[in-house]
Write a structure and sequence with these properties.
By secondary structure, this protein is an alpha/beta fold. The chain has helices at about 10-20, 55-60, 80-105, 140-155, 180-190, 205-220, 235-245, 255-275, 280-285, 295-305, 310-325; strands spanning about 1-5, 25-30, 45-50, 65-70, 105-110, 160-165, 170, 195, 200-205, 225-230, 230-235, 255. Strand 1, helix 1 and strand 2 (about 25-30) form a beta-alpha-beta unit. Helix 2 (about 55-60) crosses helix 3 (about 80-105) and helix 3 (about 80-105) packs parallel to helix 4.
Length: about 325
């Protein structure tokens, strides 16, 4: 079997490419001309240069492939020009699905996000059936992913063999950028998170997300969505576990959302002037008002999906960050 993997130089895509190779697949990786190649250095993949906004390059990329795993996305919580995000995430998805349709690809697994899953008003756990709308999406990243998922669902409704997976907050090795979630891990491990807000995340090991993609190819139903998540944890518990593993003091100050929001507005204003991205964004503070908890029960039932404890994801992430020089010398406990 031969698969095209988009985003293979990125976090989820690299884990997925490695999982496919280990299962005996031939993998073709769609990479942009300026992509960071570090995640491909230990993987035996065929590389093809292209871009989701360049339709002819996608035609070449899908040729001869049995499957397409579309894991590429512009994942930033702040971007100077939001239209670039919509072109990559929405238009790019439409372009790729059309190329795959013309090539007669057997199955397409589209990587969405739990950002597109609704959250109950009572603060409960979100599922694939929780009502959700574009109006409830906070920020351009969530809106662009919501619209891209709608493109995938529409294609499935027209007969395309598209299965959708919705990863939660992945953590683990090979987070080269790092992602916003990976940055939380890094900041806590460096002792740069003295305070926290009252929110929560669903943490999943990136390799479990990758395995879930392959299960979706084999067992998923076209047109269906499957949450690929892990443990639901309050942010303070997340930070306490990371700092414990890193030998740092845990955060002790709880900040009200109302205090953090003005700081986020100032940080974004400074970012617009300097052109440099900010870690504290208005959208991230708004999202943090809700605990982003989800259930993977449907994926477990229909796909046979399983996940490991979040503590193992943090340990593997820290081991990789340390080995790659992100953390410098590891501090000693005591």
């Amino acid at each position: 079997m031969k698969a095209l993997v988009t985003g293979a130089t990125g976090f989820v895509g690299a884990a997925l490419a490695g999982t496919l190779i280990a299962a005996g697949w031939q993998v073709r990786a769609l990479t942009r001309a300026g992509s960071d190649p570090r995640n491909l250095r230990t993987l035996t993949v065929e590389r093809t240069v292209g871009d989701l906004t360049d339709a002819p390059s996608l035609e070449r990329a899908v040729a001869g492939c049995d499957a397409v795993f579309h894991a590429a996305a512009d994942y930033r919580l702040w971007v100077p020009d939001p239209q670039t995000m919509y072109r990559a995430n929405v238009d790019g998805t439409r372009n790729l699905l059309e190329a795959a349709r013309r090539a007669g690809v057997q199955r397409i697994v589209y990587t969405s996000s739990v950002a597109c899953i609704g959250l109950p008003a009572d603060g409960g756990v979100g599922t694939e059936d929780t009502p959700v709308s574009l109006e409830s999406m906070v920020g351009h990243y969530k809106r662009s992913k919501f619209l891209a998922e709608r493109v995938a669902l529409e294609a499935a409704g027209q007969g395309a063999p598209v299965v959708i997976v919705n990863p939660a907050a992945p953590v683990g090795p090979r987070d080269v950028k790092p992602t916003p979630t990976g940055q939380i891990v890094l900041d806590a491990a460096r002792g740069r998170t003295p305070a926290y807000v009252d929110t929560g995340l669903n943490i999943v090991h990136v390799d479990d997300v990758a395995a879930g993609h392959v299960l979706a190819f084999h067992r998923g139903r076209p047109g269906e969505r499957y949450i690929l998540g892990g443990e639901n944890l309050p942010l303070r518990e997340i930070l306490v576990e990371i700092t414990r593993l890193a030998g740092r003091a845990p955060p002790r100050i709880r900040l009200p959302h109302g205090v953090v929001l003005p700081i986020a507005y100032l940080a974004e204003g400074f970012a617009r002037v300097t052109g440099k991205p900010t870690r504290v964004t208005v959208d991230s503070v708004r999202m943090a008002r809700k605990r982003m908890y989800f259930s993977s029960e449907k994926a477990a039932r229909e796909l046979g999906y399983r996940y490991r404890p979040a503590a193992l994801a943090f340990a593997d992430a820290l081991e990789w960050f340390r080995a790659e020089g992100y953390l410098g010398e590891a501090p000693q406990n005591g």
